[in-house]
Model the fold of this input.
Amino acid sequence: MTHRMSVVMVAEKLPPEFTGSGKQAMYLSEALRGLGCKVTALCSWPAGTQLPSVDNGIQVVRLICPPAGWRRSLEFALKASWWLVRNRSSYDVIHVHGYCWAALVVPFLGKPCIYKTAIPGDDDPASIRKSRGGWLKSIPISRYDAYPAISTLVARVLTFTLGSSNRVKSIPNGVDARFSPGEGITGTSARKAVRIRYNLPEESLLVLYLGSLQARKGVDLLARAWLAVVERIPRARLLMVGPHDPQGEYIQQLKATLGDNYKRTAAVGDRVDDPLELYRAAELFVFPSRNESFGNVLVEAMACGCACVATRIDGVTEEIITSGHDGVIVPPENPGAIAGAILDLLNDEPKRHRLAENALRTVEERYKISKIAERYLELYAHLCHR
Done:
């Protein structure tokens, strides 16, 4: 009988708490489970809140910690380390998703281990080295056996920091199978449901942004672009959906930028647990980010048959989209270019559908989570048998 691979996924936060790397960890866990791999996900959970009842068949160990801040990080590191030591004989590989204090202990446990950078400039080894106490943190962070690179940008950063590419493995993020056009590329029933939810006119043209409402995501660029869009197409409606501080300065600045056109913005700072219906309802998806290591929501939108506009991030978005074929790439820091691309696509339905159809093929060929899971399984096996 062949040995069944057993992997522990380590992430300080996992769904239902909002985190892009945590969502990817769960998608990958579910796909690996479908390939016969035993997966245990290890995360923290804020004390005093109700534990989730279902984790899609994945064994999730939620370690109760203080609700937030450094105390949560420290307690998770201590409890996770003890769990990993105590259960050492039950798993083969440790896969860490994004930086947390627990990641500093993993390389010393004597098991093959993988460190996945979430955002260059934040949790890559070079950035960790520059942080407070970084010279000490960099010792364990540089001792992992493999470093998945979800884009060329991440691969460049990792290779430069580590001094070689031997441990850098190019594996993009994947799209969960449930992200699909549903009943057809036009998403008729989804559009009807979303229009009812947000009290929108039936003839509305929906443009969607999904993600945290913060400067790094370029939402202010989209808000400035939107002024030109609604001037030309009054029936266009913008949905900006994601985690935010309702009273925060950034949200107030967004509302000030939109001004009287705020009424043509269906949601600023709304939040949904499952974005699938929104993807299917939108005529167009916009990804205006300034800094990303990948584009999870961009690929999810493509998988749902949505035409997409994205700002150019070298080594990231141009790898996902071939401009003019399966989406549109515009220059960074250019609200005018964003507005122009949105107007062009809203005025050209056949072009939107052509881009969306090609996007579906791109996702099927390169980003299906089942294919990504196969590549990780090969990496795990290599590390265990080298």
In short: Residues 151 and 316 are 6 Å apart (CA to CA). The domain at 6-174+368-385 is CATH 3.40.50.2000 (Rossmann fold).
